[in-house]
Q: What sequence folds into this?
C-alpha cells in the first residue's frame, strides 16, 4: 500500500471544456501569451483551443471628456478551453505566472456548458459595442453640467443605458418638468 495520489485528470471528461485558472494579478495578458507560446512549442494546439482574458469595453465621461477603455471582468483569472489530460494539465500548470486550476486540489473543475456559453458569448457581444459606465440610477439627485438647463438640479426618473440618455425631473418656474439629457451632461450630487 503505497502513498499513491490520484491523477489530476482521473475521471476527467474526454471533451473540450472551459477551465478557470488563477494567475498573477495584472499579468493576465502576459500569462496568456506565455501559455499560448508553450502550447505552440509543445505542438498541443489541437488539445488547447482557446486562452482568454475576460474583458469588457466601457465608455465613460470624466471631466467633460469621453473615454473608452477595457477592463478585466475577472482580475487574476484566465479561461482555458482544452481537452484535459496529463500532458495538457502539466503544460498549463508549468507555465510561469499560473497558480492553479479552480476546483479541488486533485481535480480541475470545468465550467458548466451553459456558464461557459453565457460568458464566452457575452464576451463576443461586448466586442461590438462598448458598455456605457453610467454612475447613477432612478431616484438619484443630479446636477446638470451642460446645456440649456446648466446648474439646475433634479432627480433622475429614468436611465436608458442602451441609448445613453437620462430623464431628469427638474423644477422650472415652480413646476416639475421632465428633461431628457445625454448621460454625460449630468453628475451625481
A:
Amino acid at each position: 500500500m503505497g502513498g499513491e495520489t490520484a491523477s489530476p485528470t482521473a475521471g476527467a471528461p474526454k471533451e473540450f471544456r472551459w477551465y478557470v485558472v488563477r494567475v498573477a494579478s495584472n499579468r493576465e495578458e502576459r500569462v496568456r501569451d506565455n501559455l499560448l507560446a508553450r502550447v505552440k512549442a509543445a505542438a498541443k494546439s489541437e488539445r488547447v483551443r482557446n486562452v482568454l482574458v475576460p474583458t469588457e469595453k466601457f465608455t465613460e465621461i470624466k471631466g467633460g471628456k469621453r473615454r473608452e477603455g477595457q477592463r478585466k471582468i475577472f482580475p487574476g483569472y484566465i479561461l482555458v478551453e482544452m481537452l484535459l489530460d496529463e500532458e495538457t494539465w502539466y503544460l498549463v500548470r508549468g507555465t510561469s505566472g499560473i497558480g492553479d486550476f479552480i476546483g479541488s486540489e486533485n481535480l480541475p473543475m470545468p465550467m458548466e456548458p451553459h456558464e461557459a456559453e453565457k460568458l464566452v458569448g457575452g464576451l463576443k457581444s461586448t466586442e461590438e459595442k462598448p458598455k456605457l459606465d453610467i454612475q447613477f440610477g432612478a431616484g438619484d439627485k443630479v446636477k446638470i453640467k451642460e446645456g440649456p438647463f446648466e446648474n439646475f438640479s433634479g432627480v433622475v426618473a429614468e436611465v436608458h443605458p442602451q441609448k445613453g440618455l437620462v430623464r431628469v425631473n427638474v423644477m422650472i418656474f415652480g413646476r416639475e418638468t421632465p428633461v431628457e439629457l445625454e448621460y454625460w451632461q449630468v453628475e451625481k450630487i
The longest strand covers residues 16-23. Helices lie at 28-41, 86-93, 113-126.
